[in-house]
Amino acid sequence: MTADQATVDTPLGKLVGAKTARALATHLDLHTAGDLLYHVPRRYDERGEHTDIRSLDVGEQVTVLAQVQRTAVRPMRQRRGNLLEVTVGDGSGGALTLTFFGNQVWRERDLRPGRWGLFAGKVTEFRSRRQLNGPEYVLLGAGDEGEVAASEEVEEFAGALIPVYPAAAAVPTWVIARCVRVVLDTVDPPADPVPATVRTTRNLVGLGAALREVHRPSSKEALYRARRRLKWDEAFAVQLTLVRRKRQAADRPARPRPVVDGGLRDAFDARLPYQLTAGQREVGTEIATDLASAHPMHRLLQGEVGSGKTVVALRAMLQVVDAGGQAALLAPTEVLAAQHYRGILDLLGSLGRAGELDAAEHATRVELVTGSLGAVARRRALGEVRSGVAGIVLGTHALLYEGVDFADLGLVVVDEQHRFGVEQRDALRAKADQPPHVLVMTATPIPRTVAMTVYGDLEVSTLSQLPRGRSPIASHVVPAAEKPAFLDRAWRRLREEVAAGHQAYVVCPRIGDGPSSDEEAAGEDDTTRRPPLAVTEVAPLLAEGPLHGLRIGVLHGRLPAEEKDAVMRSFAAGDLDVLVATTVVEVGVDVPNATVMIVLDADRFGVSQLHQLRGRVGRGSAAGLCLLVTEAMEGSSARERLDAVGSTTDGFTLAELDLEQRREGDVLGATQSGRRSHLRLLSLLRDADLIRDARTEAIGLVEEDPELVRHPALAASVAALVDADRAEYLEKG
């Protein structure tokens, strides 16, 4: 194929051969020349610089750049033949053993001390030594006798900077590098979609140069500029999408829901037993202004656990009811929906009992719609929703089903929005004749750059103050493996709280008897670790052991809805001393008398999740205590994570740590759509300035050319990076 025939859309089979193309498609989802060009190296190694073998995790698929230190051949004990052991090092002081089974004498001649190579395989551990069994490898440069290997793969790695690609066992990094070289030498680079004025203003290199340098860098400076340009393209595409959709949303009509003086909202404010915080009043004013607009509100309300988001949302719902509309609150679980129902009824009192003898003037009705409602109760509830008698409707995804019809849906409140799929949220909004106002709430603190990138089409409000009366939460790590006595003390501490009249949670990462949707252990593939502790196994052990004599309840996602609700009611009423649960208690569960939480296998949870969990205690006048039990050893990354949680209650600090320590994932929701994304390089944490600059340029460009008519190449590039499905994901966020 000649150069003028090959483009970024050319199938790889026409460039690298059918067999290799099949492997790239099967194992890495790479199908075209463009796919491969955007499959950028995950890192770059340099001979003489170590990759820190000591930091490798058991079970990890790795490629390491290392030097052969020594070899040894010994007979195998269990079967005939010899075992070749090759020790390699990387300059860090760490060593890795490569093991080859069978009579492979030629490998001993190949892998002589002093030679550098790339070695790829899965890390295992044998007798406290890290090793790769039968790894793939390619040797680099000259051997100790001056010979030079002549393979194409080695030539690819002859430069100072050695690219190491995201690879698979069947397609090692050097094979990918060989294919990339073919594409770079055969395919014309795509036309540069970014306007020349933007490239000049932001000092960006051309796209063709960036793609070449990111794969075959001529220098570290050239590599930096190449990566910066490709990051810019990703950030620019996302921001253009968000800015355009925000502009379009602002033009849509919505029914205004202005404040009505002397209505339900005013009556509710008058009966509140405490004063709103300054933050609640400020955010309430922002929301009230949005609701009075002729265009739909689309606002994100974020705040620490216990910052009073529910009261703010309830005041917004009452404003809509005052204006003749209905409000729906969508919760991710029946436990949380029922919790909201009871909590809102308690807050409203007679204001929420329309039609009853003790109802206040202008009262409304509050209805709970869940999948577990009986037929008679369901018909009654749906009738009140349909007629408009129920001004406030609470429920789970059951609100989305056919047959749940609203008289005039004016506001949709989505609690813990990250737990819902895009289609579910949109289905509820579609139940209104005109687009309803939308308020999404989250207690998971969102770093500024994430809010700017993922929620850039929403107005963002933040509650940072805690209401008066909320107690501090002390958090401590309990190193069970190093100091078993500390775990014994943790159980005694729990008993002391119960003896003082309080209650406690014990949280486990798994239900038991196989995986389930609410288990954090799902996908666990490290067979060298014991399974995560399970609720159904831990609860009886506690009842017979350290918590003998206490009233213990069990709560997890597999229980029938009626049983879950009964357990939560018992715990809330004080009929249970201890609730052994999964993360089903992570959001919304409000039992002010619960003062202590013990999280078992705490290292199996994420940082933000632990912060959410501990927010379940200290919700009353007594101080809260959270004990993070772990077998992770001191100095390990897991232990450092837990130490960080124990050292601060600032959720935004922890959210940034969480983002830094885990893979950031696809900011456009590829995991929800099940489709691959070309967003590879952008870091929401490290590239804050670049994201901000891209948003500034996007706003200016969209003001001049809202549909990008004068920039067709840019429009096509945005469509490729942010396809229609993901654009909707961003809009519906």
UniProtKB/TrEMBL annotation:
GO terms for biological process: DNA repair. Keywords: ATP-binding, DNA damage, DNA repair, DNA-binding, Helicase, Hydrolase, Nucleotide-binding. Residues 290-463 form the Helicase ATP-binding domain. The keyword Ion transport does not apply. Pfam families: DEAD, Helicase_C, RecG_dom3_C, RecG_wedge. PANTHER family: ATP-DEPENDENT DNA HELICASE HOMOLOG RECG, CHLOROPLASTIC (PTHR47964:SF1). This is Probable DNA 3'-5' helicase RecG. The lineage of its organism: Bacteria, Bacillati, Actinomycetota, Actinomycetes, Micromonosporales.
